Amino acid sequence: MTVIANPFDTGGYSLTELTQAINILPNIYTRLGQMGLFRFEGITQRSSIIEQAEGVLNLLPTVPLGGAATVANRDSKSMRSFTVPWIPHDDAITPQDIQGVRGFGVADAADPLATVMERKLTRMRAKHAQTREYMEINALKGIVKDGAGATLYNYFTEFGLQQISVDFALGTAGTNVQAKVRDVLRKVETELKGETMTGVQAIVAPEFFDKLISQPKVEDAYKYFSSTGAQPLREDMRRRFPFAGILFEEYNATVTLSTGATETLIPAGEGIAFPIGTMDTFVTYGAPANLIETVNTVGLPMYARQIARNDGSAIDVKTEASILPVNKRPRLAVRIFSSN
Hints:
Layout: H1 7-10, H2 15-24, H3 31-35, E1 39-42, E2 47-53, E3 56-59, E4 79-83, E5 86-93, H4 95-98, H5 112-140, E6 143-145, E7 151-154, H6 155-159, E8 165-167, H7 177-191, E9 199-204, H8 206-214, H9 216-229, E10 240-243, E11 246-250, E12 254-256, E13 262-264, E14 270-276, E15 282-286, E16 303-308, E17 315-327, E18 334-337
Parallel strand pairs: 1-15, 8-18, 9-11
Antiparallel strand pairs: 2-3, 2-4, 5-17, 6-7, 9-14, 10-11, 12-13, 14-18, 15-17, 16-17
């Protein structure tokens, strides 16, 4: 029997090459990805020690053998070990995938395997990007969840911190919304603890956004913004509205979990305000792949490899990511809501 020819065995498509390929494919950017809020930082281990000091979470660094050790807080409650979640996702190229597929951009079927491989990798990358967005939006709120919606870590309970909340009371006509905004800004500034920022943004549920722009003390400002900033009759004005120092943005995102259930990322009537332009507050740590050849190497955002089955029935395409998003200053992300 003639088995499927696998050009990736001899064409340089090793773990390294295929991993480079999936990491340079066009990303399916979700909102936090577009903002670049969480910077990526590779680490060499699959678990990390995180220390909390005065409300700031830090990953303990590695040092050369025999070098000076970092000095930890003697309170054992200030340190925790966290396993970096492992997120594998596999697919396969079968004869049915290749049959009748033309090589990309050519009249004849020159290299259908390469065409199908690129298509598979693009779809797999999109799923990893969506999973990372889901994990980072929850990490922004101080929680690490997996793709099934299960809470892995809650940094507030792990380190005995309390989340800051501000009730905007948008259902009350006399509420001084500008004072509420100033309250949020001051709380964020207090919790910076040596960090810098360029501004404060809030992503809010549609219900919160609608109440905000219709609140009597905000409505005129919104009308003025609408009339000067865009053409309200021709453009969708729901998305962004700067008011009193905070840029409010409607964030209406619902994801389908691996269990089949759905989850709304920002609960109805709520929002989260956070600083933008920080240097070292929002970080997604990436561990090496779960492979012998990547042991003790610096982690990458995701990995890809292919393995031809011995019977020639398919080529397995395997991808994985090991990421741990961390909001190092959990109290910086202020929960905003309206109780009426």
